Amino acid sequence: MSKKSKEKSAATLIGTQKFLSVEEIKDGLLFLKDGSVHKILKAESLNFYLRSEEEQAVIIGGFQEVLNTLNFPIQILLQSRKIDLGKYLETIRKNIDDEEDPLIKANTEDYLGFLQKMIVSSSVMDKNFYIIVSYYPAVINKSVLDKLFGSSKKVTGDQALIDSLESLAQRCSSIVMSLRNIEVECRELQTKEIVELFYQTYNQDVARLEMTYGETDQY
């Protein structure tokens, strides 16, 4: 990517940030300007359609039970991104040129031809599933307290943050264990991964180009 393109993408990112409600991303936590704190879990995909009808019914029933037992709100995000297979195809071509076994070479050429036809007929998409777990610290409204008791106090500061993080950790642990019962594994995104998720969401064209050229350190 040229220097001019990088400067343009950086300017675009700065412009986008003005419209985001994000206050800070730190230690795997997402802080919003309204005082809420969030964690993002990435759920591994499940080969649902390869399961028998009985297994599918068990998975659906288990997921319904997970949702019904939640006593706090969650958000489920599905992100589809077009995969650039250019480098992968180039690697296959190089392997074909270096291969000396005629049979392996012929099979690899067939595989390359299959991939090329598939790319022409349809886009190759990568789907990722995320669960956003949130916690909104209790804030006592000043005007209400003034009317009731003639004084005011906000539940803020270090203790409020500690309480928020503990509650958020408990919620995430509950979801991870519940989904594990239906064979869906989850893990918490770290700071860099959260930044990349936002960057890819709001700068899809730039993110795709950076994947193509292997430059993933620019957000």
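^ that was protein a. below is b, sequence first then the tokens
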Amino acid sequence: MYKKYLPDKIQRLAWVNTYIGLNYQETGDFLNAEKTLEDCLSIYREYLPKDHIDLAWVMTYLGDFYRKNKNYKKAKELLEESLNIYQQQLSPPDHIWIAWAQLHLGILQLEIGNNKKAQNLLEESLVAFEKYLPPTHIWIADTMVSLGKVYIRNNEYEKARKQLDRSIFIYKEHLPENHIYIKRALQIRDKMDNYMHEGLLISSLNILWCKAKKLI
């Protein structure tokens, strides 16, 4: 399939450079990460059909890079386009790579405040991941953390706790105790617990105040 569209040398260069771009991103070299990923996308756009699956692959990574750097307009355009390509080219509708694209777009929708869209995308993604992946796969944990945030915004704290507790368990299966992913999930859960405790305290004080007022 590659050889039909891409000369071997360009094929290898684009594929390797995508991972180099991701490595730049992981090490905090965002300038080189952006340039490398954009160059890869340009190569794929030049040589591949506009609905080619590998084009969607690079779009997802570049879209996620833009999201992490708060360039939400570019992120949204690329992530929606990549999901559309995956949905056109892959079946069944809950294909693992469709779910992967939904996860990234769902996280973006959460960050820009589209809670309902985020919930739909993330819940669909989680169903597919739980169907096809081992129960302690990192992608399941990633999805659950974001879903936990969605449920917190909906004041569905029991649902949120269930997602966050399981995500922390999965992360601890794979990652060191001080890993940022574990810390992040714990912080979200602890912040929710503190908020719930403060809410219960205020509610109790209001009840006591009302009772005291009747006694005066």
